[in-house]
Amino acid sequence: MSALVVIDAAVAARCGATTAAVPDWPCRAGCADCCRSLAQLPSLTAEEWQRLEAAVPAAHGQAIAERIREELAKSQGPYTCPWLDRDDDRCLVYEVRPVACRTYGFYVERDKGLYCNRIENRVATGEFDGILWGNQVRVDEQLDAIGPRIPLADRMR
């Protein structure tokens, strides 16, 4: 089993525990708030890129490449994820989405929430005081052990 699959399984367990504890957790299919307002375009390990490339349906390949070029042409964010189906707010590569996408909304860094305004507002009211957040620093260390993360802009050269 690859290290990436192990990371995915651990992240899925943490996220599953969170959504089981809070049935109306905002991060669900059809919510694309974070996908439409990325602070930066993704940097992924080579293994993450490989599985994305293998999973992109041929019919969507050209459209995704064009979206990537559009996002890279922007001088600054927010950016829209190139793998987002903009008509129905669904991820075109959901089953193989990057780890950064899997952890967003469920993981934090020390004193830094990594989530959208929907969650931030509920954190501010104390509604999520009992949540056991995932440790993003640990996930990043595990990803770094797999190999360097390659920025999207570099992948497109």
Describe it.
With 157 residues, this protein is mainly α. Helices cover 46% and strands 11% of the residues. It has 7 helices and 7 strands, in the order αβααββαββαβαβα. The strands form 3 sheets. It has a 3-stranded mixed β-sheet with strand order 5-4-6. Strands 1-7 form a two-stranded antiparallel ribbon. A two-stranded antiparallel sheet has the order 2-3. The chain starts with a helix and ends with a helix.
Helix/strand layout:
Layout: H1 3-21, E1 43-45, H2 46-55, H3 58-73, E2 84-85, E3 90-91, H4 99-103, E4 107-109, E5 112-113, H5 117-124, E6 134-135, H6 136-146, E7 149-151, H7 152-155
Parallel strand pairs: 4-6
Antiparallel strand pairs: 1-7, 2-3, 4-5
Short description:
With 157 residues, the protein is mostly helical. It has seven helices and seven strands. The relative contact order is 0.21.
Q: Helicity level, as a percent range?
A: 40-55%
The rough form would be described as: globular
Task: Give the rounded overall mean pLDDT.
Answer: 89
**Biggest sheet, open or closed, and with what strands and sense?**
3 strands, mixed
Distance between the termini: 31 Å
The strands making up the biggest β-sheet line up spatially as: 5-4-6
The Rg value, from CA coordinates, equals 16 Å
Number of domains: 1
- Please give the count of helices: 7
- Note poorly predicted spans: none
Give the tally of β-strands: 7
What is the beta-strand fraction?
5-15%
